[in-house]
Structure formats: C-alpha cells, structure tokens
Amino acid sequence: MPINTLACKGNRGDLKELIAGLKKQQFVFTSSRDISAADVKANYHIANDIALASKPYSESEFVKTCTLKAAEIACSEKLKFLLILA
Predict the structure, then answer these.
(1) How close are the terminal C-alpha atoms of the chain, in Å?
(2) How many whole angstroms separate alpha carbon 52 and alpha carbon 26?
(3) Rg (CA), the chain
(4) Residue 58: which H helix or E strand, with range?
(5) 46-83: b or e for each residue (b if 16 or more CB lie within 10 Å)?
(6) Rounded to an integer, what distance in angstroms lies between the CA atom of residue 12 and that of residue 17?
(7) Inter-residue contact 57 to 66 (CB < 8 Å)
(8) Higher model confidence: residue 53 or residue 2?
(9) pLDDT at residue 6 above 50?
(10) Are 74 and 42 in contact (CB under 8 A)?
(11) Is 45 helix (H, G, I), strand (E, B) or coil?
(12) Over the stretch 33-63, which tens digit does the pLDDT of each residue have?
C-alpha cells in the first residue's frame, strides 16, 4: 500500500474526533444563548411586576412570588423542587 493511502486512513479518525469536538463546543454556545434569552425574559417580567405593584423588592411574599415566576420562565424543569422548598 502506498504511504498516502495509509496516511488518509489515519486522518479520517482524527477528522472524526475534530468534528465531534467542534460539535460539543458549538453546543455549549448555543445552549448558553438559549439560557441567556430565558434569563432576560424572566428579568423583564420581574421588573414589570415591581413597577406594576409599586412595592419595594424587600417584602418577603412579593420576593417569593417574583422568584417563582422567574423560575417558571427560566428553569421550568426545576420548578417542582422550588415549590417544595417554598
């Protein structure tokens, strides 16, 4: 077998590893963008609630309501756990 053929076979494995590594890196950035968008949306809703209620953000029941609303928007999969703690 010529040397070039052996080198190409070896490079295919390296290429697959590089592609897999690239996909993992891209997933980190796309997932963080989705998380960031949910955080911004939750932050907007909390700011809106504070403005509508005309209350300081120091009353415990109001803080609890805002926190649960933010959790519902940003991380709905952990909402059950937060409801148990509340």
Answers:
(1) 70
(2) 40
(3) 24
(4) none
(5) beebeeeeeeeeeeeeeeeebeeebbebbeeeeeeeee
(6) 9
(7) yes
(8) 53
(9) no
(10) yes
(11) helix
(12) 666 778 888 889 888 988 888 877 778 888 8
Stretch 75-85: mean pLDDT, rounded?
73
The torsion angle over the Cα atoms of residues 34, 39, 40 and 44, rounded to 10 degrees, is: 140
Quick: pLDDT tens for 17-30. 888 888 888 777 76
What length does the chain have? 86
- Structure token pair of residue 22: 């690239």
9 pLDDT higher than 60:
no
- Rounded-to-integer distance, Cα 4 and Cα 7, Å: 5
Q: Note the pTM of the prediction, 2 decimals.
A: 0.49
